[in-house]
Hints:
Layout: E1 14-16, E2 22-24, E3 35-38, E4 45-47, E5 50-53, E6 58-59, H1 60-66, H2 71-77, E7 85-86, E8 91-94, E9 97-99, E10 108-111, E11 116-120, E12 126-131, E13 134-135, E14 144-153, H3 161-169, E15 189-193, E16 199-201, E17 212-214, E18 218-219, H4 222-231, E19 237-241
Parallel strand pairs: 10-19, 13-17, 16-18
Antiparallel strand pairs: 1-2, 3-12, 4-9, 5-8, 6-7, 10-11, 11-12, 14-15, 14-19, 15-16
Amino acid sequence: MMLNVLNNLNLKRFFFSSLGSIFFLGLYHPDTFALTYKIPRSGNVIGEYEETTAGSAVSLTELAQQHDIGMYEMARANPHLYRKRLEHNTSVIIPSQFTLPSGPKKGIVLNLADMRIFYYHPDETTVSTYPVGVGRSGWSTPRGTTNIISKEKNPAWHPPESIRREAARSGKKLPLVVPAGPHNPLGHYAMHLGFSGILIHGTTQPTSIGRYSSHGCIRLYNPDIKELFYMVPIGTVVRVVYEPHEHE
């Protein structure tokens, strides 16, 4: 079940069914990155590892963004290339094989161990997956089941007092409100969860995706949150789990 990422043609979604037949999901705008697969009839593994060659003067971080992979995933697959500028034609592994979390295949499931969201489409046959940044030490993303209670385009950010105190300790002063715009850390789209103060949102720091990097919120690459924002209705169940495993 292999997803073929064909950047030059902007053919962003190919996948194999469990019987091996290829399905073409169409021509997509180049800002659309979701990796979408048929849900397997048996087992929980989707996709497979791929190999690509780097262009000149790129990094793993840049390749991760191009292929909709988180930084931790990319570094784990290519430990010898981490923090290095890649030479032209360097061989790089794209870790586009994932394990679906256990439990119901409904709504959104976030596996904190993989730092990856899985969105099960209403057709009950396909799943899209996105890398995320989640809560760092001392600011953990809550586990459990909740819902998307509202959605907001071009949100303003109201830094909680706890975050403002943390910033003050490092010599920074945060305003009471950060208005919508290019410097807003929530990006252009936000979905509010039933967990107090926790959102699924975009970011001004794409290198934080695939890391334990947030104050508990769930960050996505900006093209990913835009896509998810318009696909997912208010009321969608969101289940947050922690399931470490060995990738096949």
